[in-house]
Amino acid sequence: MTEMMKAAVYHALEDIRIEERPVPEIGADEILLKTLACGLCGGETMAWYKKSEPKVLGHEPIGEVVRVGADVTDYKVGDRLFINHHVGRVDSHLSRRGHFTRDPFYASMKLDPGGVCEYYRVTAQHLRMDAHKLPDSISTEAAVTIEPWSCVMSGLKVCNIQPGDTVAVVGAGFMGQGFVHLAPLFGAGKVVALDFSDWRLDKAREFGATHTINPKNEDPVEAMRRANNGRLADTVIVIAPSPQAWAQAEELVEVGGTLHLGAPLAPGTDWVRDGGRAYFDQITVTSRYSSDHTDTYSYIRLLEAGRIKAAEAISHRFDIDDSAEAFEMLRKAEKSLKIVVYPHGIPEEKKNA
User: Fold this and answer.
1) Per-residue pLDDT averaged across 97-104, rounded?
2) CATH 3.40.50.720 location in the chain
3) Which of 14, 147, 208, 236 is 20 to 30 A from 307 via CA?
4) What pairing do the DSSP bridges indicate for beta strands 253-261 and 284-287?
C-alpha cells in the first residue's frame, strides 16, 4: 500500500479532476478503510449546495478495514463496513429532541477526505455513532444504497402513512424510486409515481408503483383521481427540487393529508401557497434532512431481511479514472439511477452487469 492515492475532486459542475492525495493518517482511536465502491448522489449536482471547493467527490462509500488504530478493539483488518459520512451526538438540545441531523455537529463530522478516493479515514465519533459490519448476505453494491435510502427511510418515518393509504411520489429518479419501493413497508396501499420520463416510470413499476403518471401526457390531478376512486393522495412526496414541482405536489394532496418535501429548493427561492387552502385543507407539511443512526440501523435490518431490492437500483458502474464521465451522467439525469464508482477497479463479475 502506497502513501499516495487517487481521488476524484470536484472543482465545479463541469470540472471533476483525478488528483493525487496523501493516504490519510489515522489516530489511535481511528481506522483507515480501502474504498470498495462509492455511489454518487444527485445532491452533488446542486452547485449552491457545495459549501467549499475543491472537495473530494462522493459520500456513499463502502470500505474494507486496512489499518486499525492502537486503541480500536471492535474492528479488525478485513472487516467490510458501512460508515455514515455524517454522524450526530447525544448531548445537545437538538439531538435530545430527536433532530440529530440538524445539530451543527452532524454536518461538521465527515469522512476524510471523502468517498470517491482509494482510502478514507474514519474518526472515533463515527465508530461510536454509526458504524456497521456488513454480513456476507449484503453485497457491496446493495450496501452502497444504505446512506441514500436511509434518508428515504428517515423521510417516510414522518409522512404519517396509515395502513392502506395512497402515496404519490413526484420525481422518479433514484431517491424517488426509494420512496416508491419503501412506502409499502410503512403501510402504503396504492403507490403512484409521477415523472416526465417514461423510462423512469417503467423503473418505478419494477420497484413497486401500482400506478404511473406522466404529466406531459395527461393532467396529473385528473389522473390521480381516476387511479384513486375519485380522491387525491393521502401522502404526496416531492423529490423534484423546483417550485413548480412543489406546487404540483400540493395539488395532489387530499384534505387531511401530508405533503413531504423530499429535496430542498435553492436558498432564497420563494414557495407561495394559497392561504385559504393552507388553513382549511389541514394538510401537514413535513421535511427531513439526511439520515441519523436510527435510520441506517433500520434500513440495514430490512436489507438483511431481503425486503429491499437494493442491488437492482444500480444502473451504471465506472472506474475512478472515469469519474468525470460518471458525474456528467449523474448531472444529465436521463436513463440512470444509482451510479457507482470503483476506486480500485470494477470487479470482473460486474463489468458486463
Assistant:
1) 97
2) 158-287
3) 236
4) parallel
Contacts of 265 (CB under 8 A, 6+ apart): 241, 242, 243, 246, 271
| Burial category of 12 from C-beta neighbours within 10 Å (exposed 0-12, middle 13-18, buried 19 and up) | exposed
- 31 vs 120: CA distance, rounded Å: 9
pLDDT at 51: 67
Q: Whole-number mean pLDDT of the chain?
A: 96
Domain with CATH 3.90.180.10 in the chain: 4-147+291-350
Alpha helical stretches, state H, the chain: 93-96, 104-108, 124-129, 140-143, 146-156, 174-182, 198-206, 220-227, 243-251, 275-280, 293-304, 323-332
Distance CA 11, CA 44 (A): 12
Mean pLDDT of 259-274: 95
CA 290 to mean position of chain CA atoms = 8
Distance CA 142, CA 305 (A): 13
Q: Which three cell numbers stand for residue 326?
A: 460518471
Cα angle 250, 252, 258 (rounded to 5 degrees) comes to: 65
Average pLDDT over residues 32-54: 88
Q: The domain 158-287 belongs to what CATH superfamily?
A: NAD(P)-binding Rossmann-like Domain (3.40.50.720)
Give the pLDDT score at 2.
79
Per the CB < 8 A criterion, the answer to whether 57 and 16 are in contact is yes
Q: Which CATH class is domain 4-147+291-350?
A: alpha beta
